[in-house]
Amino acid sequence: MRFKLAGVGEVLWDLLPGGRQLGGAPANFAYHACALGAEGHVISRVGRDELGREIISRLQKLGVPVDCIEIDETLPTGTVSVELGPDGQPQFTIHENVAWDALQGEAASLRAAGEADAVCFGTLGQRCEPARSAIRKLVAAAPKNALRIFDVNLRQHFFSTQIIAESLALANVLKVSDVELPKLAEMLNLSGNQRDQIACLAQRHGLLLVALTRGAHGSVLYSEGRFSEHSGIQVNVVDTVGAGDAFTAAMALGMLSGWAIDRINEFANRVAAYVCSCAGATPPLPPELRSQIGLGRA
After folding, report:
1. Contact (Cβ atoms closer than 8 angstroms) between residue 148 and residue 178
2. CATH of domain 4-287
C-alpha cells in the first residue's frame, strides 16, 4: 500500500495579473505527495460556484483525489488577490468569509485523516471558526503513529501566539522558514541563535523533527539531538511558488520511509529546487524523483 498523506486547510485561487493559479499550501502539499508516488488528499471546502468547480476539475487533472473537498452552499470559493505595488513587489489580499473558513470535517475527510500516515496543517486555515475546530479534530483523528506536520505558514495578520502554541501541542513535526522563525522566537520567548531556537522548539514540544527552510540557501533539519545542514541546490529559478510545500511533502515521505535526516534533507532540497525551476506550484515531477520513494507500508 502507498503512503497516505493529507493536507488540511485552505484551497484557493491566486488571482495574479497574468491569470489565476491554483493555490493553498495544503493543496500543494497533497499534489506533491501524489506526484512523488503517494496517495495525497486535500481536505478543504469550496463554494458551489464556477471557481469551486474549476478547483475540483484542476485537482482531478493533476491526479489528486477530490473526495475530501466539501461544497459550501452559500460562501464563495477562496481567492487571493495579487497586485504589483509601486516597487514591483507583489501585494497579497487573502479574502475572508470564504468556503474554506467553514470547513466542517465531514465523513470522507475524517476517514482520510484516520487512515493517514501524515497530515499537514498550518495557521491560515485556522484563522476562524468553524474551520479551526474542524482542522484540529481532523489532525487529532490521525493514527497515533502518524506524522502531524505543523507548517507554520504565517500570512498577513491571520495568526496568533495562541494558535501557534495550540498547533505545536497537536504536532510532532514542525516546518518553519527563516523569515518565520524570528517571529516564533518573539512570540514563544525563544533565545539564542537559530540552532538554539530549533533545539528548544523540539525539546519543549516533543517534536520528532524540526525543519528550517532558508530559500536558496537550503535548509536545516533537527531530529533526536542531531542537526543536518544543506546549502541548497542551484537552479535557474523560474518562480518559487509551491517549493516550500514540495519540500514538506518530500520530507514527510523521507521520514515515513525511515531515512536518515541527511538523506531526507538532500531529497527535500532536490524536489524543492526542481519546483523552483518550473512555472507554477504544481509542475509534473521527473521519474527519478518519484522512484526514490518506496511503495510505503507493507
Report:
1. no
2. 3.40.1190.20
